[in-house]
Design brief:
Layout: E1 2-6, E2 13-17, E3 25-32, H1 37-47, E4 50-60, E5 63-72, H2 81-96, H3 100-106
Antiparallel strand pairs: 1-2, 2-3, 3-5, 4-5
Helix pairs in contact: 1-2
């Protein structure tokens, strides 16, 4: 099971594990919805060298509830704890960021 990072119940959070999908590591992301969030999460997964085999994407009110079924670049589940932690931390960072347009205006 992936560790839960962030405030999983109220703020952005990421968790998941290997038990519920044959051949994939399942990672769930819960965060305040914003323009570009799904794109930013997918781009980060690509940057990490992961393949998305399936995704379930939902928005409830102003909260995104996205689930990704992932494998490493070689097609295997993510098994190393350090790698799982890297994925969780990267996705929490993305979930906490403002929309890309807002980042550009700030700088």
């Amino acid at each position: 099971r992936l560790p839960c990072a962030g405030a999983c119940r109220s703020g952005p959070g990421v968790n998941g594990g290997n038990g519920s999908a044959a051949g994939c590591t399942v990672v769930g992301v819960r965060a305040g919805d914003r323009r570009g969030l799904l794109f930013d999460l997918a781009r980060e997964l690509h940057r990490l060298g992961l393949q998305v085999r399936r995704a379930k994407v939902a928005t409830r009110t102003d909260r995104a509830h996205d689930v990704f079924y992932l494998v490493e670049g070689d097609g295997r589940k993510v098994t190393r704890a350090t790698r799982k932690g890297e994925i969780v931390e990267a996705l929490v960072t993305i979930a906490r960021e403002p929309a890309a347009g807002l980042r550009q205006k700030e700088g």
